[in-house]
Amino acid sequence: MPALSASAPGKVILFGEHAVVYGQPAIAVPVTHVQAKAIVTANPRGTAGSVHIQAPDIDLDCYLRDLAPENPLAKAINGVLTSLSIEHPPAFNLRVTSSIPLASGMGSGAAISVAVIRVVAAFLGRQLPDEQVSALTYEVEKIYHGTPSGIDNTVVTYAMPVYFIKGQPIQTFAVNRPFTIVIGNTGVRSPTSVAVGDVRKNWQADPASFEALFAQIGEIAQQARLAIEAGQIEALGPLMDENHKLLQALTVSSPELDQLVDAARQAGALGAKLSGGGRGGNMIALADAANAQAIVQALIDAGATGTITTAVGS
Ligand code: MEV
Fold first, then answer.
1. Dihedral sign, CA of 59, 63, 68, 71?
2. Could you give the residue numbers annotated as active site?
């Protein structure tokens, strides 16, 4: 049997992170420049149920049976086996690689799960519907933080722009005029669980203030959707700036993120904000065709460890 492979893209959240955990809408888009990839090869000489896993990016080389059930790779593989009612699959080797920066708000965990779930199912002769892939990935996402909104697994599984409200069916939307964003990485790894957990503690301590912030962020996401659908790209910049201020108020920005956001604005970005869980990871800046390169250079000069320039809706 030839090797089978599956890939899934990274993602950025354009508007609405954190507030989306509390029922507000958020907008996310796939970033196909970076991908997670999972490859399965059959191991005809192995005993049934033996699964050898290699994930060189995280120095992992072991058997499925050696991983704790709460390990994300184990949970993804076992999720597929359980949902297909297969206890002892034919022996196989799984290799996982990813060019998505780890713990940086770009959905690396979700993308790895989606790729693994799809390729393991394919090896077992099944093509799972996107809905099921997304649901299984959501279960894995719970390991990273107990209360995921579901936006990461959704945008990465469907690989299209989403307007997401927790618990509601997926909504996509038309991008009337494509626009360019520059993504800048602070180089600071920041697990989503920590930022989400801190926001939760702050919300529990002061629900009224935090719910007001969530509602304002939700309002911005709604306005942003209308602007994107109407092709009013210029309107998105101030909405990003406003969203960043509200994320600062939620305490999820950081000096490194603020520095990159300021540098992008000074280089002519129409707006900029952190993206994802925050505290580190990535920020995004809205560029036009003329200033994208200047923004990239300004981000690097301000300490970004990597940048990605991507067009939304092209
Ligand atoms: C993480 O990419 C986005 C957060 O809003 C968490 C979530 O939605 O589950 C911070």
1. positive
2. 152
Q: Which CATH architecture has domain 4-164?
A: 2-Layer Sandwich (3.30)
How far is ligand 1, taken at its centre, from the CA of residue 54, in Å? 28
The residue contributing the CA closest to ligand 1 atom 2 is 276
20 lines ligand 1 (CB under 6 A): yes
Ligand 1 neighbour 110 (Cβ under 6 A): no
Pocket lining: 13 vs ligand 1, CB cutoff 6 Å: yes
**Confidence band of 145 (pLDDT split at 50, 70, 90):** confident
CA 242, CA 260: separation in Å to the nearest integer? 16
How does DSSP classify residue 235? Answer: G
Pocket test for ligand 1, best of 139, 151, 202, 257 (most atoms within 8 A of CB): 151
Architecture of domain 175-312: 2-Layer Sandwich (3.30)
Q: How many CB atoms lie within 10 A of CB 60?
A: 14
Q: What is the pLDDT of residues 205-238, one digit of tens each?
A: 999 999 999 999 999 999 999 999 999 999 999 9
The answer on pLDDT for 138 being more than 90 is yes
Break the chain into its structural domains and give their ranges.
4-164, 175-312
